[in-house]
Amino acid sequence: xxxxxxxxxxxxxxxxxxxxxxxxxxxxxxxxxxxxxxxxxxxxxxxxxxxxxxxxxxxxxxxxxxxxxxxxxxxxxxxxxxxxxxxxxxxxxxxxxxxxxxxxxxxxxxxxxxxxxxxxxxxxxxxxxxxxxxxxxxxxxxxxxxxxxxxxxx
Length: 154
What we know:
Rossmann fold; eight-stranded mixed β-sheet; alpha/beta; globular; 8 strands
C-alpha cells in the first residue's frame, strides 16, 4: 500500500472552478472521487455544474438521485453528503468539512481539502486529525492573485 496523502488548497476565490480542475486531474489519473457535500442542495448543484464546467466532454458522475446504487460503480465522481463507497473511491474531495466518522477515512488513499483562507485554523485542526489517521504525506497550496504557492498551515 502506498503512502496516504492529503493536499490542502487554501483559496479566496470560488470553490467550484478549483474543485472541477482537480476532478479533471483525478479522472485523467484514473482516480475515483467521492465529492463530499454539506447538504443535498450542494450535491445537486455541484453535480449539475460539473457537466458545464470541465473541459473534458464527459466524466462519469452521479449521486443517489441520478444513478441507481448498482450503477454507481461506473461513476468516477460520486456526489454525497456522507462517506459512501458506491463508486469505490480512492480520493475524497471536500470544501473544508469536518468529517464526523474519521474511521471511514481508512478507505481512501488521497484527500483533497479545499478551504477558505479565513478558515485556516480549522484546516490546521483537520491536518492533525488526518495525520493521526495515517495521512502522513501532507502538502499545502495557497491561491493568491491568480498564482499558486506552496506553504504550510503555520
